Amino acid sequence: MNGVIRVREVRTETELEALRDEWGSLLSHASARHAIFLSLHWHLAAWAWRAKDAELNCLVAEDEHGIVAILPLVRSHGQRTGLKPRDLAYLTVPDTQFADMVCARDVAEAAAMAFARYLVGIKAWDRLCFTHLEKDAMVLEFLLPALQRQGLLLSEGEADSNAWLGLAQGWESYYASRSRRLKKGNNHVANRLKKHFPNVDVRRIVVGKDDVENVLQQLERISAASWKQDTGLTLDHAGPRAFMHSLSKQLAGRGQVVVWFLVLDGQAVASEYQLHEDGKIYALRADYDATFEAWSPGTYLFWQLLMQTFSENGERYWMGPGRNSYKARWLEGGEPLRKFTVYNRTPLGQYRALLDGRIRPLMRRLRDFVTTRESREGK
């Protein structure tokens, strides 16, 4: 690419929506494996959540022919006080599974250099955070090296993983590979449910424009009664609710939003919200009404929906980032997700680079040394 690339900032939702056609065109040429998470639909929904705690700072790179790359960033709200850094970060929400710059790979290096030069030229930030980066992310391959060439320091955070299981093998083969303990537990849950509730029904809804409001109402009711209430992530909180409404209404009628409900005697008590794209199924969030916790409705719903999902000719079911014992019983593998922090050349940026990159790791090593020594002396 020989033309000059300029970078500008998009600061409002209206400006973001105005990128719709060019964003879609970029994404169609990007050959992204998880395109739904790089789409404008996703980022508009994410912004609906983040608008109350952040400022939009989306970077757009363009040459004489038009837009060549987009880097959706947000700036944390609040005035800097004391040693609190001014943070930029990729626009994510807790439901995000993958993130990357939106760009065709053949222009990614030039676009990354343009972004890096622009970011180095502004002093209104101290740290820049990237998360949910898979192994072939263009941020990882092109942007981070470009920022390093500009003299900025990086540190890598603790890696995460997006759990998955393959669907091509068929349900019988897959389930035969699961532990005896898991299968025994599932059968026990099923027997208890059917003894207590005369009508046990699992419903799958491909969300259309006509039923999106009704589906959202049911999801919100279950979520509000969930054990997750204290986390602030349930759908009766403004941010998550705005995100779910925006995403669902944008994608309704496309065959991409699928919601599962477990209905006991006519009442929906557990749910799973999925996105479908090109044979990939992404489980965004699952909830159950804590009133019914004794009957393990979430366990039963997941078992049944997974059994049916294997008949849909899909490629892979993604369970989402995060490690827990429940996922471990079902998963077959995990896609590593990396996290990086970039430090600006500001005084506070350099201080945080020293603190995060050297002082804190040293303190952790000292703590581990003391703990190990005390453990040995206690034996």
Helix content: 40-55%
Radius of gyration: 23 Å
CATH class of the largest domain: Alpha Beta
Listing every helix as H and every strand as E from the N terminus to the C terminus, the arrangement reads: EHHHEEEEEEHEHEEHHEHHEEEHEHEH
Describe the biggest sheet?
A: 12 strands, mixed
- CATH topology title of the largest domain: Aminopeptidase
Structurally, the number of domains stands at 2
Please state the overall shape, judged from the principal axes of the Cα atoms: globular
Quick one: how many beta strands? 16
What's the CATH H-level homologous superfamily of the largest domain?
A: Gcn5-related N-acetyltransferase (GNAT)
Rounded to the nearest angstrom, the distance between the terminal CA atoms is 65 Å
Total number of helical segments?
A: 12
Q: Please report which band the strand proportion falls in: under 5%, 5-15%, 15-25%, 25-35%, 35-45% or over 45%.
A: 25-35%
Overall average residue pLDDT: 93
| Structural class determined from secondary elements | alpha+beta
Q: Supply the CATH architecture of the largest domain.
A: 3-Layer(aba) Sandwich
Uncertain regions: pLDDT < 50 for 5+ in a row?
A: none
